[in-house]
Every structure is written in C-alpha cells, then in structure tokens.
C-alpha cells in the first residue's frame, strides 16, 4: 500500500486523475446479482461532493480570471522595453496560429472521425446518482464581467505608476494561485471520480471514452504539425536547419513529458536553446518568459476537446463564436498560472460563458486535458526554442544581460515590502511621523 501511495505521489495530478477515472469506470460497471458493487447510497455521497465542488468552482472562476488576467495584462503593458512586447506578441501569434489550425483541422475531420458518436443523449448530471443536498454558491460577478473588468483594470495599471492597487493585485494573484494549487487541483480527482461514476451508472461513460480516443489521435498529430510549422518559420528567420534545430530540442520535449511542468523544464530548455546557437542573453530572457506566456500546445488541446464535446453533444456554436473563443483563449493562456492543470482551470470560465458548457462537460474537459497534460507541456516548451531563435535573429545582439531583460529580475516580494511607502510617502513625512511617534511615546 505504501508503494502505491508513493507512486501516486510521484506521478502528480495526472496519475490521480487517471486512477479516479479507472476506479469510477470499474466500480460503476461491475455488478453482483444485478446490483452495483458500489451501493447507490455510497455513490450519492460522491455525487454530493461533486455537486458542492462544482458550485465552488462556479464561484471561483470569476475570481481566477480577475486574479490572473489583471496583473498579467499590467505586467505585459509596462514590460521591459520593446523586446518583452515583441516576445509577448510572437507568443500570442503562435498561440493564435495553433488555435486556428486546430479549428481548421477539427472542422474538416471531426464530422468524419466522430461520425456516429453523438453523445447528445447523455443524461443530465444527477440523473443516476442524486446528491443528498446542495448549497448554492453564486459567483460575485459574471464571467464576462470579470473578463472586462480584468482588461480595464489591467490596462489602467499598465498606464499608471506602480502603487497600492498594483500591490493588491499581486497579492490577489498569489492568493488565487494558492487556491488553485492547494484546494482546486488536489480535489479535482475526487470531483472527476464522482462525475465519471455518475456517467458509468447511466451507461454513457464508455461511449464517451471511445469517442475521446479518436480525438486524442488527432490532437497528438496536431502537436507534431504545430512544432513543425514553428521550426520552419524559425529556420527561415534564423537561417538554420529546422529539422536539426527541432532534434536539438528533443531533450526538453522528453523532460517535459516526465515533469508536465514548463517551469521544471526551464534548465533543460535553456541548455538546448543555447545549443541551437541562440545567444546566452536572449535564451536567458526568452525561455523563462515563454515558459509562462507561450502555451500553443495547451491551446490546441483545449480547443480540440472543446470542439469534440460541442460536436458530439449537440451544442450549437457558430463560427464567429469559435473565432472569438480562440482570441480569448490565447489571452487566457498568457495569464494561466504555471501549476499542473492551471491552463484548463483558467479556461473554464470561457468554456461556460462563451460555449455554454455545463458542469459535466467542464469536468470532462478537465479530465481529458490533464490526461494529456504532459504532451501539451512538451509542445509548449519545445516551441519556446523556436521563438528564441526568431527573437535572437531580430535582436541582432541588442539584448544584453541586465539590459532589455531587466524586468525579468523584478522581485515582487521586495516590491510588496516597499510599494506602500516608496513613491507615496516622502522622506520628510516619514521623519515627521517618526518624530511624532517618539514624542507620543515619551509622553
């Protein structure tokens, strides 16, 4: 038992999610004497938890959007000179290319690949396992209101000097990141277990799994095409052999497959990027930055599964809505936190507000995303090497350590300690306040 627990701990969220899905499929399918091996009464306990967690997730989504998107827009707006802006623009362009390419492939292939796989008759959540009780947790604001508020405040913070409001949003971002890391992500496997257990009781889980296997094949092929396109552009821009450059980045790809973390892969990505002939200053600037803002692989994966679920469950989404979803998803990916599952958690608000997904469809999206998380991460970090080649060619040696990349050395904690005083209270006022405090103490 201890060895199993140790293996689950080392595997991270991916292993827990896969274990939850398999366990739900087994317990929901096996019957003894015509009765499920897991009694309905016990199943309703998990259904109750899933319902409560879904309510909490609905409450948290607008807070996640405000807490992540607002400071991200503010940081990119002020930036570290033009090269941060250029890198962010390239990352966003790459993300949009990934999204639109995936849209084109999905629109042309899924009608054939998913023919006869309609899941429109999937029963509503709770139809087999009803929750014992529910607690309404309405969000503070609507999702679209949260997005608009994030844009307005983020742009405003980028235009005014740093002050108390910026400090507040940096602290709020830290709170939201901890909320995702410590509460939402750890409880996701239990939530997914409850959702899949309910689907298994209704007899729909296996049909869903068979459908998603076809989508996985398309997604993995798309990841290869995306990387090929990125390195072809980088090869043309930097006059390098794109195949050789891509092969050089394979250690980063394989490392990301094992860690499922862009941040943990940075040392390997940095080393391989330098071996591709990128200058040390440019590599040190672009690789850590792109590990946060360049999520082309994640964008492709989220869009493909969203399109598949919408297609198979009869959700009417127009072409204009899909295009808007891609643009908004690109912005959301820039703001996504660097934690396992952070990208899909940041995108859940768009899935519900722009595509009309319900809680079961969102849970399905989360499960499928995390199941392929390592492949998306590997595509993300490998693509960072291509962007580094392009930036290195464009910069032509104008990026130096301590120069244009100075913003990357910004210490937010030191800023939090000083921002409430620096720039707001003069030294004379501080001296007068100290003198006044001393006289009051003496009195």
Automatic annotation (TrEMBL):
GO (cellular component) term, any one: plasma membrane
UniProt cross-references to InterPro entries, sorted A to Z: Na-dicarboxylate_symporter (IPR001991), Na:dicarbo_symporter_sf (IPR036458)
Highest taxon, organism lineage: Bacteria
Membrane topology designation: Multi-pass membrane protein
Transmembrane regions listed in the UniProt entry: 12-32, 52-74, 86-110, 140-159, 179-199, 211-233, 245-266, 286-310, 322-346
Localization, UniProt: Membrane
A single BP term in Gene Ontology: serine transport
Chief localization: membrane
UniProt xrefs under Pfam families: SDF (PF00375)
GO molecular function: neutral L-amino acid:sodium symporter activity
PANTHER family linked to this entry: PROTON/GLUTAMATE-ASPARTATE SYMPORTER, SERINE_THREONINE TRANSPORTER SSTT
Protein name: Sodium:dicarboxylate symporter family
């Amino acid at each position: 038992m201890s060895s199993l627990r140790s293996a689950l701990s080392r595997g991270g969220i991916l292993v827990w999610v896969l274990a939850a899905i398999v366990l739900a499929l087994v317990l929901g399918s096996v019957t003894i004497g015509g009765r499920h091996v897991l009694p309905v009464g016990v199943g309703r306990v998990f259904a109750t938890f899933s319902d409560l967690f879904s309510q909490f997730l609905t409450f948290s989504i607008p807070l996640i959007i405000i807490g992540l998107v607002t400071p991200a827009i503010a940081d990119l707006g002020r930036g570290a000179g033009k090269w941060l802006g250029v890198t962010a623009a390239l990352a966003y362009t790459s993300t949009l290319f990934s999204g639109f390419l995936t849209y084109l492939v999905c629109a042309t292939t899924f009608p054939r690949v998913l023919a006869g796989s309609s899941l429109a008759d999937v029963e509503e959540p709770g139809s087999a396992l009803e929750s014992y009780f529910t607690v309404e947790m309405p969000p503070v604001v609507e999702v679209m209101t949260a997005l608009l508020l994030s844009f307005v405040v983020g742009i405003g913070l980028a235009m005014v000097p740093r002050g108390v409001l910026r400090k507040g949003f940096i602290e709020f971002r830290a709170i939201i990141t901890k909320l995702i890391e410590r509460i939402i992500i750890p409880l996701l496997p239990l939530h997914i277990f409850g959702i899949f257990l309910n689907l298994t009781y209704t007899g729909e889980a296996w049909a869903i799994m068979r459908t998603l296997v076809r989508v996985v094949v398309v997604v993995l092929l798309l990841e290869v095409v995306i990387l090929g396109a990125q390195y072809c552009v980088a090869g043309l821009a930097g006059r390098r052999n794109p195949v050789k450059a891509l092969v050089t980045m394979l250690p980063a790809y394989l490392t990301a497959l094992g860690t499922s973390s862009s941040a943990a892969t940075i040392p390997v990505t940095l080393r391989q990027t330098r071996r591709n002939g990128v200058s040390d200053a440019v590599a040190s600037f672009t690789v850590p930055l792109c590990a946060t803002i360049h999520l082309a692989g994640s964008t492709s994966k989220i869009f493909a599964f969203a399109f598949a679920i919408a297609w198979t469950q009869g959700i009417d989404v127009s072409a204009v809505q899909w295009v808007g979803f891609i643009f908004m998803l690109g912005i959301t990916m820039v703001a996504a936190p660097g934690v396992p599952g952070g990208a899909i958690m940041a995108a859940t608000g768009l899935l519900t507000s722009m595509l009309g997904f319900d809680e079961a469809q969102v849970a399905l999206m989360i499960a499928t995303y995390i199941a392929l998380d390592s492949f998306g991460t590997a595509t993300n970090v490998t693509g960072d090497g291509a962007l580094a080649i392009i930036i290195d060619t464009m910069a032509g040696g104008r990026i130096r350590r301590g120069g244009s990349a100075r913003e990357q050395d910004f210490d937010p904690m030191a800023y939090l300690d000083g921002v409430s005083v620096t720039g707001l209270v003069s030294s004379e006022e501080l001296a007068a306040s100290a003198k006044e405090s001393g006289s009051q103490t003496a009195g």
